[in-house]
Amino acid sequence: MILFLILSVAALFLIVYLSMAGRLSDNARAHRSVSIPKATGQKKNSENVPSNNVKLFETYDYYGTKIINENGIYTVRDKTGSQIFYSYEELPLAYKKMLSTMQNIGTENKKNAVAIDFRNNTYYVRTPDGKVRKYKRLSEIPARYRS
Length: 147
Prior knowledge:
It is built from three helices and eight strands, in the order αβββββαβββα. By secondary structure, it is of the alpha+beta class. Among the domains are: 49-108; 111-147. The strands form two sheets. The chain has a five-stranded mixed sheet, covered by helices on one side. Strands 6-7-8 form a three-stranded antiparallel sheet, with no helix packed on it. The longest helix is centred in the N-terminal third of the chain and has 30 residues, at 2-31.
């Protein structure tokens, strides 16, 4: 009789625990959900759609908010979750300001700034005088540009 009572209480605790764990996981899933706007009824202008031969992929990290631009489609990841915007015009003003700030930081004219890009297995070095030089290996780039 006592064994039956102990097993019943243990089963009751197990049922309560599993139901609480299910609720917690549902809440956690709700915070990670992705809000994707419906594409029905939206017509894309030919201006907004890049041609097939040009592939664009940019990522920006603004104090933990990540903005990814892939061929004109913006994915924004922040504390609240992920959101997808199908054009620059759909972005909220706060995200547009973040993008413009990050682009200004990347393009502002810095004294003695050297930019090294790696594209198609080739290193491109842009010097402060505006010249672009190509190098096949990182070791071929002069030390004054690498540091």
